[in-house]
């Protein structure tokens, strides 16, 4: 699983979501073995309608194994604190998202925490981020 935390109204989050999608494509025949998961990074925009709108605007509604998850505030906060133990303060700042994508293996163990800040869709840095994600996911497959 490739897991990150996004705010559906954040201006940088679409690039992160698109890099998850690009990484899935780079996995080729292994792509059906990797789930792409985003979790709402803020309670302010955690309603399902916000997440569905984000998915539609980013063309993610038909991406296999893409899930943008939300829950009750207490559940979200518990989930954030679990991952903050790995990466303190990832939910801070005005742009509420994680610039970390966690690569989680089939046993539920975090194998990698890939850090990067993807740039605009035309930059080579963004392509490199998708390659890093795909390579980390590939190495975590049984």
What's this model, at a glance?
The protein is an alpha/beta fold and 142 residues long.
How would you characterize this protein structure?
- The protein has a single domain (2-140), classed as Glutaredoxin, CATH 3.40.30.
- Helices cover 37% and strands 18% of the residues.
- The chain is built from 4 helices and 5 strands.
- The longest helix has 17 residues, at 124-140.
- The protein is globular.
In the CATH hierarchy, what is the class?
Alpha Beta
Helix-strand pattern? EHEHEHEEH
**The CATH topology, please?**
Glutaredoxin
Helix content: 25-40%
Helix count from the secondary structure assignment: 4
Strand order of the biggest β-sheet:
3-2-1-4-5
Let me know the average pLDDT.
85
Identify low-pLDDT runs: 86-90
CATH architecture: 3-Layer(aba) Sandwich
- Tell me the fraction of residues in β-strands, as a range: 15-25%
The total domain count is 1
The CATH homologous superfamily is named Glutaredoxin
Query: Largest sheet, if any?
Result: 5 strands, mixed
The N- to C-terminal Cα distance equals 12 Å
Task: Give the tally of β-strands.
Answer: 5
Class computed from helices, strands and strand pairing: alpha/beta
Topology (SSEs and partners):
Blueprint: E1 2-6, H1 13-26, E2 36-40, H2 48-57, E3 66-69, H3 73-84, E4 100-104, E5 110-115, H4 124-140
Parallel strand pairs: 1-2, 2-3
Antiparallel strand pairs: 1-4, 4-5
Helix pairs in contact: 1-4
